[in-house]
Amino acid sequence: xxxxxxxxxxxxxxxxxxxxxxxxxxxxxxxxxxxxxxxxxxxxxxxxxxxxxxxxxxxxxxxxxxxxxxxxxxxxxxxxxxxxxxxxxxxxxxxxxxxxxxxxxxxxxxxxxxxxxxxxxxxxxxxxxxxxxxxxxxxxxxxxxxxxxxxxxxxxxxxxxxxxxxxxxxxxxxxxxxxxxxxxxxxxxxxxxxxxxxxxxxxxxxxxxxxxxxxxxxxxxxxxxxxxxxxxxxxxxxxxxxxxxxxxxxxxxxxxxxxxxxxxxxxxxxxxxxxxxxxxxxxxxxxxxxxxxxxxxxxxxxxxxxxxxxxxxxxxxxxxxxxxxxxxxxxxxxxxxxxxxxx
Length: 343
Description:
By secondary structure, the chain is an alpha/beta fold. The protein has helices at residues 2-5, 8-21, 28-34, 57-64, 67-70, 83-91, 102-110, 157-160, 162-169, 186-192, 205-212, 237-242, 244-263, 265-275, 281-295, 309-321, and strands at 42-47, 50-51, 73-78, 80-81, 97-101, 117-122, 129-134, 149-152, 177-180, 197-201, 216-220, 231-236. Helix 4 (57-64) crosses helix 13 (244-263), helix 11 (205-212) runs antiparallel to helix 15 (281-295) and helix 14 crosses helix 15 (281-295).
């Protein structure tokens, strides 16, 4: 899987980010001491989780509304290419922060494909991973996936978690064919008819329907795996250890952007469009409205970003029970609970 994650897209992303990596670390100590008190802004490179869709627009909101600047940061936002690519780019030093699917991170860590990263906040309290298709493909239930062709990025959590999903949903995974795709072109690939379905988050439904001009059909992983978190914010283990206060300031600013985006989805969609020409503001707003129900849960209270060790342990147990983890891991190995927001 480690080799698979090094796709052309991820390599191109890493190359592009290398141009800005030099300014994301050298000035940290001075800016960290100044915080948001009006001193020189600390340059930070942030990756989105997967392209530039509405589900990631909260980062643009935090930038455009001045939340990052108030916290002392000058943030450069770059499109991510899924869990594997985001981890690789951050641990490689080309970016400072970015969201990954927590289950995908557990798979990477527990199978020795990645290390030296930690999660510091939850973006979604429930996984949004799903298989997406459109009407007319003959897919209405998980069992219908047998004999079908699906596309996704090699490092995507949807693809890497599929064997566990298939086992729990009663699907013969050996009868499902996966082909490689890129974050920004997956929906177009589905629209062209080249594949029967794609790996996607449930919030992608409005955008899928906009691109394909057909009604979307979603098979959410949360229907069979209810304890799994969705995306979490990560940074390198080195940054978390050496600059904990900087991490807390950045996390707080990002959470402020998340809260604002969920409260004002239409404005968030317009702010995304302002920065990403290809964005569809209406579809972005619809994604945020769908995502709102995944961001808070009964045990998170009103505080965004909280992470519970017990739930993470359950996620690990699910993966271990499915035989998808080669190594025994604990919640503390992937999450720095001292930096995460408290409920």
